[in-house]
Design a protein that fits this description.
Length: 167
């Protein structure tokens, strides 16, 4: 988020009112992401998880379009140019166990790519000790979403604190 003093800040909790703002948040997150990062997204159907990943993909400069991988389970989006990390976008909605996540072999890409797993809570945490968990909850009577960022491990505690210190 850009504040009037011109500094960028990535809050641990924010409210997002539009799809454009959700994609913008994804672009901001992409600025923090690097190869080896795991991001786990939770939220109900239609919350904006894929919209957030579209912003992450745009920020990383990957080949698109970034769409929901619900039926293919996982997609790899390489960078268009340069040496940045690819985006591995997975959807664990149809998966019922950790062993099914293991069968996807996401851990083979986790060191060289940014891996984002929708519906991954309770299933994908074992892919990386350090991870960013993002919960998206829509308001009951509006289009506004509350986005909560939770860093796990030294990597994310440092990254989120650095983002907060930019204020």
């Amino acid at each position: 988020m850009i504040f009037p003093n011109g500094h960028a800040r990535l809050p641990t909790t924010t409210r997002i009112a539009t799809d454009v703002a959700m994609r913008d948040l994804g672009r901001q997150l992409a600025g923090l992401l690097r190869a080896g990062d795991l991001v786990i997204l939770t939220g109900p159907l239609g919350a904006g998880k894929t919209t957030l990943v579209q912003g992450i993909g745009a920020g990383l400069g990957v080949r698109g379009p970034v769409t929901s991988p619900t039926f293919v389970i996982a997609r790899v989006h390489p960078v268009v140019s340069g040496s940045g990390p690819a985006l591995v976008h997975a959807d664990a909605y149809r998966l019922g166990s950790i062993s099914e996540v293991d069968d996807l072999d996401l851990d083979t890409d986790v060191a060289t790519a940014v891996t984002v797993v929708e519906w991954g809570a309770g299933l994908a945490e074992g892919l990386a000790q350090d991870r960013l968990e993002i919960s998206i909850e829509p308001d009951a009577d509006s289009d506004v979403r509350t986005v909560q960022l939770n860093g796990h491990g030294a990597r994310w505690n440092d990254a989120l604190m650095e983002a907060l210190d930019r204020l």
